[in-house]
Every structure is written in structure tokens, then in C-alpha cells.
Amino acid sequence: MAALRPPRRALLRLCRAFSSGGCQLAPERGGERRDAAPSRVSRFCPPRKSCHDWIGPPDKYSNLRPVHFYIPENESPLEQKLRELRQETQEWNQQFWANQNLTFLKEKEKFIDSRLKAKGLELRAESGQKVTLNAEEMADFYKQFLRKNFQKHMYYNRDWYRRNFAITFFMGKVALERIWNKLRLKRKKTIS
């Protein structure tokens, strides 16, 4: 089993290729920022001189943490395509879960209202506290909601895997491009 593992040195080289050696900050210009891609999801803003991707606080609608992508000044076209694909996937994912969570909350409220009305109870007790259903009654709602949204989740999972395979493919291409560029630089240094 141990023979199937890649050598540690090869793994370290691959990790370095993904992390792109040194960090170069984008030059600061007036009000324009090149160090973080714009996000429509959150108002979180990483430090101006950051040279890494940042993960922001959870979005209040989707409950997912948005990623603010660093844009290096010397970003290759392949790296740009990878970053844009990651951004597009993040926005698609945020939108899906924001819509799904909103639908869930609305349907949950309708379910609770209908069950309480069937029992002859009001939404609020005399003390002002919100009346809730027990776990068994809520289990009926969860089962019903999952059954109703099964097809939607199947399509989501299929698209999620497609997008992740595409991102992984481009990450491999970017890693190979970086390794190739480093080898070319070493060859030029040894020749001259």
C-alpha cells in the first residue's frame, strides 16, 4: 500500500507549483483594486495589500462563506480562466443555496401554520412565545420537503460535480504551466 503513494518530494513540488512561489502585490492605483476580485455576495473586504484568497463571513441568505479571489498582476490567461471559473461557480453555488434556504423557510412556516391551525392553536401562546411543533411532526415536514426537492438536488449535485471536475482540470493545467515556466527559467539561467 505504501508503494502507491507519490514520493514526498514530488508532492512538495506540486504544492509549490500551485502556490506560485513568491507573492507580488498589485500596484495601487486611485480607487481601483487589483488584489481582490469584486464580489456580489458580501461586503467583506480583505486587507488592501493581501496577496492570497480570503474567505469572508457566512452570507446571511446562503450560509456559505464567500471567497474573495486574489488577482496577481502577472496572471496568465490560463490562471485568469481558472479564477473566473471558480468565481462563477461560487456565485452559482451562493445563488442556489440562498434560493433553497428561502424556499425552505417559507415552506416550513406554511407547514407549521397549517399544523397549528389543524390543532386549533395560534402562532403565539398567551405568554407571547412562539408555539412550535415537536420533533416527530417536524420530521414529517423534512421528509416531505426532501422528497419534493429531490430532482432539484440531483441536478444541483450533477452540475456541482461537473464544475468541480472542470476546476480541477484547470488547476492541473495551471500547475503544469507553472512548472514548465520554472523549468524554462532554470534552463535559460544555465545556458547563459
Any overview of this molecule?
The chain is mainly α. It contains 4 helices and 2 strands, in the order αββααα. Strands 1-2 form a two-stranded antiparallel sheet. The radius of gyration is 25 Å and the shape is elongated. The relative contact order is 0.11.
Uncertain stretches = 1-8, 10-39
Radius of gyration, in angstroms, nearest whole number: 25 Å
Strand content: under 5%
Order of helices and strands: HEEHHH
How many strands appear in the DSSP assignment? Answer: 2
Mean pLDDT across all residues, rounded?
79
If strands are numbered along the chain, what order do they take across the biggest sheet? 1-2
Described by the principal axes of the CA atoms, the overall outline is elongated
Secondary-structure-based class equals mainly alpha
The number of helical runs is: 4
Helix amount: 55-70%
Separation, N- and C-terminal Cα atoms: 45 Å
Summarize the main sheet: 2 strands, antiparallel
